[in-house]
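User: I need a structural model of P4H4 protein from Symbiodinium natans for a docking pre-check later this week. Nothing fancy, just the predicted structure tokens so I can convert them on my end. Input:
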Amino acid sequence: MDEPRYLQGLHVLCLWREKEAGPVQVEAQLNGVREEHPMKSELPPEVANADWGSFRKSLQQLLHINKATNQWGNFHLKQPFGLFAADGRRLASADEVLATQLVLLIEGGQWFWPPVRIGYLRALPGTTYELETVSVQPVVFRVRGFLRPEECQTIIAMGEANMSESPIVPMDTHHRDKDTKEFRTSTQARLDSNQSPLLVELDHRISNLTRVPVSHNEEVQILRYRLGEFYAAHTDNFDPQYYQNTVDYIDKGHRNRLLTVFWYLTNVSQGGETLFPRANALPQPEDMHSCEKGLKVQPEIGSVLLWYSLRPNGNSDPNSLHASCPVREGKKWSANYWVWNKPRDFEIDLPDAEYDDEYGGESSVATEGDPVPQNNVSATFENRHPETVYLFWKPPDRAQEAFMGEIQPQASMKMYTYPGHIWHFRSGVDQSSTLLYVQEIFEGEAEQIFILGGEDLGEMPEVLDREVLAGSRRLEMTSAGGMQAPSLAPGPAQSAQVPLNSEEVAAVHPGALYQNDYMTLWNDSNDPVSAVLRVVTPDRFELKVSQLDSLGGGSDGWVIFRSGFTVHDIPDQPHRKRLQLHNVRDVKVLDYDESKFERRANLMLGILKRCSWVLMGAFQLELDLKKNQVVCGPRAALLKPFWETTVALVKTTEASMWIFNPHPSRALVTA
Ligand SMILES: O=C(O)CCC(=O)C(=O)O
Ligand SMILES: [Fe+2]
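Assistant: Understood. Predicted structure tokens for P4H4 protein:
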């Protein structure tokens, strides 16, 4: 039965809190229909601080989203729902959702532009073009001037050099013995984006239009229709019912073509229209070759059509049936750009950001024989840079990287991946943009967190004010030189380093020692923690933290952190200097005795050890020349289990360092 609501699975939510720490109010317009009385409800206050999985689960329960709303069955293969801002930006934390307030929950997991009404014009932010709704059932947009005439020319020329007969993927149950020519008479060429920078650019132009990552697209298919040539009515997605031979390839229907961006590369004098015979709920036509009824769109050079073959909930949309009417005069050049609801790289099966999400509490069908990959890793990439970073997966055997999404400042993105996989972080959406960082997924941990450090100092100044420097001036931290990729490569920091004056030289001379005052840091057993920073050379230090929480409630644990550093000015604070940390080749960044710590601590230390750049970005150090202190604090959540608060390490000497002796019979040694 056809669903009455053709935007099923697209829910518009408004979330807010009336009081800080109060419950989260939710108002929801469901299934793309604007009701006079929207659904109203609230979620308990703790939901606001919940991890992403629990947060999603509470929304899912509230809205009664379940897998069974999907027509394909095999629910374990169904893609999880996605949450988006109204401009199509994917949201990835409770914080982000609550900050955004107006969000779209899309059950099919990929962004879906709401059509609103026929004739509705939506300016695409950051571009000069508009999405014009030409049909709401199916959802079809036209974007005029999306391609420049000279780009159309170039594409046609590339296509022309590679033409062959247009194939169709025959429905194995229906059309196995039929001649392709009965359905489609055009000629076609597939073009790999790698062969042309224009195509690479178009991948991103389109991804920006659809808000679906580039990794989801098929190679563009250039089409040429000569006089009388046509394509009978069909849908672009694959219904598993009709594609038994390819059913695994399409995850039994859950991996499917989501949308088509159809390029018109020429005008056509007569005929050659794209026809939607079921537009506005018209019934299934009897004659798939008829061009009589339905919505007809005339080819117009440089314009594109965007239509969805799946509904927002991931089911197929029978109204997306479409055809190319025969060309009556002239020639028609056009192209299919198909975008799938899941990434196209099948072997590695790298699903979407939220693929690992649990639907929870659903039918047993969902768990029967789920092919859950064994050694997969969920990697969370947190962006602490002041600018958006672009995440790419670098396949081992190919030069072409797969764009997986963008991470806004302060946002994070979770990916399913595998040990040994390489991830690239770039400054832009294409592969020619600056490579900021390379991260390999390591063995052993199922959950890995990577924080892309930066010069953005986040909440740090406040922490300093409150806990260490009460009464002193608020610190103005600076953002030095934009993006600074944490790097494993040795070398000086990128922002300009100032020559040291004599005061500074004295502060960081080899052998200079700094220690926190006795009883300023504590472990769980209430033993005082000692932190000693020792300058090794004028550009390297070693920080030893001892009396850490250890096995069986003890305090034997110690950690040594080694880093290179450069000294930087802080505007208007002549006596304060920022120490920028960096790796030094052949120096072991982290040392500790595993046998001293509990499993959880070892786990965290293991992570820190493997991605030492995290540590470089996680600590914030400042030199106070007046007070002879190094102020040291965490600036990444990752560090907080070890280093909760900001402490001042005071200049000291070997002889006057304090040592805590946990043995009660022996006296504490202080100067
Ligand atoms: O040429 C057209 O207008 C539509 C072609 C089409 O739908 C296809 O090739 O899948
Ligand atoms: Fe088509």
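Before docking, keep this in mind: Residues 173-177, 347-374, 454-496, 664-671 have pLDDT under 50 and may be disordered.
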